[in-house]
Amino acid sequence: xxxxxxxxxxxxxxxxxxxxxxxxxxxxxxxxxxxxxxxxxxxxxxxxxxxxxxxxxxxxxxxxxxxxxxxxxxxxxxxxxxxxxxxxxxxxxxxxxxxxxxxxxxxxxxxxxxxxxxxxxxxxxxxxxxxxxxxxxxxxxxxxxxxxxxxxxxxxxxxxxxxxxxxxxxxxxxxxxxxxxxxxxxxxxxxxxxxxxxxxxxxxxxxxxxxxxxxxxxxxxxxxxxxxxxxxxxxxxxxxxxxxxxxxxxxxxxxxxxxxxxxxxxxxxxxxxxxxxxxxxxxxxxxxxxxxxxxxxxxx
Length: 300
Ligand SMILES: [Fe+2]
What we know:
There is one protein chain. The chain is α+β, with helices and mostly antiparallel strands. 17% of the residues lie in helices and 36% in strands. Strand 14 and strand 15 form a beta hairpin. The protein starts with a strand and ends with a strand. The structure holds fe (ii) ion (FE2). Fe (ii) ion is lined by residues 145, 147, 204, 206, 255.
């Protein structure tokens, strides 16, 4: 059903800091400001990929999943409804703000707003990174990956796999954690979910760049500017991403990485890894912070 994560939106009291953080640290390009005042950031020729709106608390506002076109969109709405999901067909105003032709919205079992859309606005050969760098790995693989905290993986998978059609890439168990990784295109994972009883939240958003030097350059800038590091440079065991993590002013981490393997969906056999990393990715010496976006979920 889902082809990619085509856009994502957050709210934050510190949204305005992204005007500087996006271009100068991450290499994203500021999209022209619309009347709603939301900060929209580009990472390729799509109109925008990441939106940060002013809001009272740090939160994930929506996940914007792309489908192939109008027929796939209608089929997705019908499938969602047939599986008991309440779907709202959104109007032209929201479609214009999301820079898509048509979209519909619904919620996952933990209250995270989901949007499906087709026809993302695009302007060929117009992306200019906010600072010198070689660009982002996007296209059919979407904008990157998102990692959520969920209270119950089985319940989460009934929705994300059983309804939205994500496929399991791998399981990783380490430091008492259980994390499942899911693909919907050739990106090793577009979604990962970490089980923590009683809560739901957002761990990080991953952006993949085209060269290892882009990762090193970003690491220098992050450290020079004093953003809190969540994990040192390292290479993951499952997707082989070389990356580091830092805490943004909006409660979620950015994983900034290069070199991940692609997944061949038909050939994939999910593996169990007993370590997260081949090397590196060490948390701070005083311990890993809990995600800044985390809220209790009532038991069902
Ligand atoms: Fe990640």
